[in-house]
Amino acid sequence: MYFQIYCILHTEGGNSSPLLHLKNDLSNAFRKKQRDTFLFSTYDLRDIGKITMIELWVKDDTKGQWFADLVVAVNHHRDNEMIIFPVHRFVHTYH
């Protein structure tokens, strides 16, 4: 199973990040009843402001589904501000 996870961060001022490809270095990602962690760094981004919304989607080469429980974003430009986005749903896939 091959998935690629992407997101765009949005701020209260209407700014957006570029398309971010979330990375997971483990080969056992996307197993049933398993929690996976995907990382990206805001160090490479300019300070876009206070993050208030996240767009999240999956590109895959299968007909699989991906359930996202939550997303935790840490904004390194804002004193490591941690923002938790409860998702609790299946994420849209694009082939």
Name the features.
two-stranded antiparallel sheet, single chain, four-stranded mixed sheet, 0% helix, 47% strand, 95 residues, mainly beta
Sheet having the most strands: 4 strands, mixed
Tell me the number of helical segments per DSSP (H or I, 4 or more residues long): 0
Uncertain regions: pLDDT < 50 for 5+ in a row? none
Radius of gyration: 14 Å
What's the helix-strand series? Answer: EEEEEE
**Spatial arrangement of strands, main beta sheet:** 2-1-3-6
Tally of domains: 1
Structure description:
The chain has no helices and six strands. It has 95 residues and is an all-beta fold. The chain has one domain (3-94). The strands form two sheets. It has a four-stranded mixed sheet with strand order 2-1-3-6, with no helix packed on it. The protein is elongated.
Compact overview of the structure:
This protein is mainly beta. It is built from no helices and six strands.
Chain-wise SSE layout:
Layout: E1 3-11, E2 20-22, E3 51-60, E4 66-75, E5 81-91, E6 93-94
Parallel strand pairs: 3-6
Antiparallel strand pairs: 1-2, 1-3, 4-5
